[in-house]
Specification:
By secondary structure, the protein is of the alpha+beta class. The chain is built from 17 helices and ten strands. The chain is globular.
């Protein structure tokens, strides 16, 4: 793998560069220390990188908004107008998702998600997650090698959320293709052809899920999606409509409910391959160290690198003026390595106190509602691997360890490993 791109000064810094995003941590360190509020000249976005500032932004909903310009057709750029037209002609224009709302609408809508993701239901999924994790490892353990991303990290969380969203287990690769297209559609500098392709892929997903919505309205069942389809939103006097449900399927359920866990599972195995002492310590006593390891993976690699906010008023922060209406990038991945909050932040510390204080699941009113399920999937995913594998290493000549080029997510394209099994 090539050496990471490291700007020599703040004047050279940007996050709108694929090579920087491949390994952004040197840039994060530079910005965190020298420009904690940084106006990226290539995007016009204000990038925030210190832990305490990020916690403040998540908590201060009076000055920082989650509303997106994309919710307002009058403010659409040419690509957004094209996508909007395609949705009108062929599918459903996605409504504002839960993550793109402010209170009181966010609080009202969040209540039905909190009901759907209630602790008792997530607890009940524990045996299913455990069973699937061990089944997936069992499929490749006799081979002595695998592509961990494709054979384990993708199917584990995606099959679990498929079952809760009314999709068939065998359709998960098609759904993965749709979520990948959705992410490509959130990138910068897309051509018209790319916008058309990404939008039409999302419309395919809409036509897959629309009959499921209609069936669940007629015949409710015990799935998460049935609750989301049939529960009236407090204060709205109605349930979510089709446009709102389609927005939730892509962003808050399939993407939020699988992609981040997939990326953390892959990152965790890569980190263990590179940190042999940590691997030895972890497998010596997984009951003691595994839960902390899960938190350290999310902190260090931050599958969600950051999320956007909009300034509701003029704001001064660290001597920088952020004008009303400006877009802000709350860069959680940078805050997760802030030495002001974390001792030896670049290291995996299996005995780190308050390991779960990271921002990998955001913070405040928009804290990730799927975090309890994600933690279970990470725990059982790594536990199944530890219980089956005696030792492992990166397969020589098969890995470039490159990440999917995306501004918001950090996702390994593939991870080929070889191993010896326990007997």
């Amino acid at each position: 793998m090539d050496a990471p791109v490291c700007p020599r000064s703040v004047t050279e810094a940007t996050l709108a560069d694929a090579e920087v995003l491949e390994c952004p941590f040197p840039t994060y360190e530079l910005l965190r220390e020298e420009a904690p509020v940084f106006l990226d000249p290539r995007t016009g976005i204000y990038v925030i990188t210190r832990y305490e500032d990020l916690r403040m932004i998540c908590a201060d909903t009076e000055r920082f908004s989650n509303l997106r310009y994309s919710n307002d057709p009058a403010r659409h750029n040419s690509n957004q107008k094209l996508a909007h037209r395609l949705f009108l002609e062929k599918g459903w224009v996605p409504g504002a998702s839960l993550a793109a709302r402010d209170d009181p609408e966010h609080r009202q809508m969040r209540s039905i998600f909190d009901t759907a993701f209630r602790p008792k239901r997530i607890d009940a999924l524990d045996p299913e997650v455990e069973s699937l994790a061990y089944e997936l490892v069992g499929r490749f353990i006799v081979d002595g090698h695998c592509n961990f991303v494709r054979q384990f990290a993708v199917p584990l969380p995606l099959i679990i959320i498929c079952r809760q969203m009314g999709a068939k287990d065998g359709d998960f690769w098609q759904i993965k293709a749709w979520t990948d297209a959705w992410f490509r559609g959130t990138g910068f500098g897309l051509t018209e052809e790319q916008v058309i392709w990404c939008t039409e892929m999302e419309i395919q997903a809409q036509h897959y899920f629309q009959p499921i919505f209609e069936r669940l309205r007629r015949e409710p069942d015990n799935t998460l999606l049935s609750d989301l389809v049939n529960t009236e939103v407090p204060g709205w006097g109605r349930c979510l409509n089709d446009n709102e449900l389609h927005a939730e399927m892509m962003q808050d359920t399939f993407v939020g409910g699988s992609e981040t866990t997939t990326n953390a599972l892959s990152a965790g195995i890569m980190l263990l391959a590179r940190n042999r002492a940590v691997w030895s310590k972890l497998k010596s006593d997984p009951d003691k160290y595994l839960r902390t390891f899960c938190e350290e993976v999310v902190r260090l690699e931050s599958p969600v690198q950051g999320l956007s906010r909009t300034a509701k008023v003029d704001i001064e922060l660290h001597g920088v003026h952020i004008p009303k209406g400006a877009m802000i990038d709350a860069r959680f991945a940078a805050g997760n390595r802030d030495p002001r909050h974390f001792t030896r932040p670049e290291e995996i510390d299996l005995e780190r106190r308050a390991a779960a204080s990271h921002l990998g699941f955001s913070s405040g009113t928009h804290y990730c509602l799927g975090a309890p399920l994600a933690r279970r999937e990470l725990y059982w995913g790594f536990k199944a691997f530890i219980d089956h594998v005696d030792d492992f290493w990166l397969a020589e000549g098969k890995n470039n360890l490159r990440h999917f080029p995306n501004y918001a997510l950090r996702a390994l394209n593939e991870l080929h490993i070889e191993f010896t099994r326990k007997h």
